[in-house]
């Protein structure tokens, strides 16, 4: 049995940080029932559950990929049961059986850990030579509650009816019609309604990292890989960086393949190589940097593969401000104050590309937003770099109401446009229709917006919580953008 483990790396007092780990993976296949029991240790630093987790709690989404001797392509493992062996973990089963959601079982702030077991069933072949990957993604609970969209500021995208000065209060899950004095979607007066929800959901604590996207690419067939990256994999080229289509890393995206890829018939091996020395996944290769150069289709494909779904623009606003009444032109940490990081010298960023990459100058209201495109570190930085284990305030960590990182800055985040969401809710993005596999086709860009600004856009008109930029806008190129997903 071969074991494969994938590592991903104010209000109530929270600690901010990361370092999720899956270790000690053991696999016990049952050839008579086409099942397998997978046990492993799961832990992450600086987790939290406050007052029973009613409003504030983080967790981890765990999903399984597997393959066998008879079926060499990676497939999604459907979870039939789970159990906690030891530790301070609880879990919630996923009704789609695409994974398991783990969270603290007791009120705590600090390291969350435990030993767990997962059974995957209905394997598509007899599990001889079974290999598994255990993927873990840090998540944050967004509780069921009312919330506001729009912020009565200069750049607000939504408003109450025709009143430019009043945000809309979403008090229940409903279809909101303009003709009933409901929400007004600015710049699109023909929209008759939007679909809004106040239900609980969980969202990724950080933006998708380059390491996570590489794991996705390396689980695909060659045909799927051809469709998943913009680089033409069938033609000889010196451009080995697959997302930027360049010969060297561009805008700090280090995802690459080896030269001669056009002569390889099977799946290619992608890896991170920010230092451009052709050695895979070294300490300084930027594995934990937010993944840019993503189109909406690429982001949504990754989320689909992970059993997640895209966020909507309303999701983004609720994640940012929670139930609080908006401040005009506010950023994700709740005020209009901002201290953009402008990398005018290489000393501003320390331990470049490493898991402990950090910003030298710490201050409140920090965000990786700047316009100096000639600076030495133009491009995204490490996911959650502004939050450290000793950071205990929302403005100090530049965190959202619920503790999410980088909702303002780093990479622009694709979200589904709210009125378009109503059109495709029952087709592609309904969680009940997701199957954990790669591959769906529709013009995602037409249904998407970009929120939160990015590392080369400092303008408040593109980065505040209540503003969106169309994903079809020519001056919002893909090298600026990425995103995150939700359950």
What amount of the residues lies in strands?
25-35%
Binned, the helix content reads 10-25%
The major β-sheet equals:
10 strands, mixed
Number of helices: 7
Quickly give the structural class: mainly beta
Count of beta strands: 28
User: Taking all residues together, what is the mean pLDDT?
Assistant: 82
Distance between the termini: 32 Å
Our Rg estimate from Cα atoms comes to 22 Å
Bulk shape: globular
Q: Which residues sit in consecutive blocks of at least 5 with pLDDT less than 50?
A: 1-17, 425-433
Could you explain how this protein is built, in words?
The chain is mainly β and 487 residues long. Among the domains are: 2-142, no CATH class; 292-486, no CATH class. It is 10% helix and 30% strand. It has seven helices and 28 strands. Strands 1, 2, 3, 4, 5, 6, 7, 8, 9 and 16 form a ten-stranded mixed β-sheet that branches. The protein is globular, with a radius of gyration of 22 Å. It starts with a strand and ends with a strand.
Short key terms for the protein model shown above:
disordered N terminus, single chain, mainly beta, 10-stranded mixed β-sheet, 4-stranded mixed β-sheet, globular, 487 residues, 28 strands
